[in-house]
Amino acid sequence: MGCGRRVVDGAELIGMLLLMLCLNMLMLDSPLLIWLIYMALLKICMGFSSIEFVVSVHQSYWNSLTKWVPPPVKMTSSYVRDSINVSRKRMDVDSLDMLQFHWWDYSNTGYIDALKHLTDLKNEGKIKTVALTNFDTERLQIILENEIPVVSNQVQHSIVDMRPQQRMAELCQLTGVKLITYGTVMGGLLSEKFLDTNINIPFAGPAINTPSLQKYKRMVDAWGGWGLFQGLLRTLKQVATKHGVSISTVAVKYVLDQSAVAGSMVGVRLGLSDHIRDTNAIFSLVLDEEDVNSIKEAAGKGKDLLKVIGDCGDEYRRA
C-alpha cells in the first residue's frame, strides 16, 4: 500500500485512506467491502472548495478522488467544469476515479444543476464515478429521478444511529446505490474504553476530549443517555467476548451486515490508535441470530433518531 500526492483546499481537511478499495468494488459490482482505515483529521464544518487525495493499493495502480463542497453560487457548466479541472490538474490525472459531492442548503436547488454538470463530465470521461455525502432520502430520490448516476451516499450509521435503515436503505436497494458509513464506532465510544464508566463524575472516566467524541456523545444523549448506552455496551461486550473480538469489531460488523451498506470507515488517530487488529477481525466475524437479536433488543431501548434528529445528514442542516 502506498500513498501518493495529497492536495488540500480550504480551512479544514479529511484524510481518506483506502477509499479506492471501495471505489473499485463499486465500479466492478463486487461483493461486500470494507474500508480499513479512515483518517478523520478534521471535520468539515464550513464551506470550502475541495479535498483531494491520490492513493494506491497496488504499486502499479493509482486511484484519485476528490470531495467537492462548493459554495452556494450559481452552478453553471463553466463553474463546475473549471472547479473539476482544478482538481484534475492538481492531482495530475485525466480522469477522477470518484467525486463525492456535498451540498449544505436544500432550499437552493443548485445541487441538481451541479450534479447534471458533473454527469456531463462523467460522460466526457473526466470523472469515472459520482457519489454523494450526507444527502437525505428525499433529495437522493430527486437526484435519481433526474437520471444522475450516483453510485453511493456517505452517511452516519451506527448501532445507535440506525436512521439509514429506516428510509434510505429501501431506496438504495431498489436503485443500486450503496451506503458508505461513518461514525460506525461513534468516535470510539463503542469500545471497551467507555464500558462501565461514569463520565458525569470529573476525572472518574475517560475524557470526552475530541470533537468526534463530543459529537457522538451528543448522539448518545439524543438516543437515550449514558446509562442506557452502558447497557448497550454491556450487550456488545457479551457478543464480543463470545467471538473473541472487541466491541468496536462487533459494532462495525453489525452495520456492514445492514441493507445496502457497501463499506464502513473506521477512524484512526496517527500515533495514538490505529485499530488494525480490530479491523482485520471484521473479515472473519460472523454474527449469529442470537447475537443480532440481543443487539437489536439493546439498541431498541433507545429513541428513534429519525424522529429526534431527522433523516440522514439533517444533523448538519438544522438551525
Give an overview in words:
Strands 1-2-3-4-5-6-7-8 form an eight-stranded mixed sheet, with helices on both faces. It has twelve helices and eight strands. Helix 4 (137-145) links the parallel strand 5 (130-133) and strand 6. The chain is elongated and about 55 Å long. With 319 residues, it is α/β, with parallel strands linked by helices. The longest helix is centred in the last third of the chain and has 18 residues, at 226-243.
Q: How many helical elements?
A: 12
Order of helices and strands: EHEEHEHEHEHHEHHHEHHH
Structural class: alpha/beta
Give a short account of the largest sheet: 8 strands, mixed
Beta-strand share of residues: 15-25%
Give the rounded overall mean pLDDT: 83
Q: Strand tally, please?
A: 8
User: Which residue ranges are poorly predicted, with pLDDT under 50 across at least 5 consecutive positions?
Assistant: 1-60
Q: Which strand order does the major sheet show?
A: 1-2-3-4-5-6-7-8
Give structural attributes:
elongated, eight-stranded mixed β-sheet, about 325 residues, alpha/beta, about 15% strand, disordered N terminus, 8 strands
Brief digest:
The protein has 319 residues and is α/β, with parallel strands linked by helices. It has helices at residues 19-27, 77-91, 110-123, 137-145, 163-166, 168-175, 211-223, 226-243, 247-256, 276-281, 289-299, 305-308; strands at residues 2-8, 50-58, 61-68, 98-101, 130-133, 150-156, 178-182, 261-264. Helix 8 (226-243) crosses helix 9 (247-256) and helix 8 packs antiparallel against helix 11.
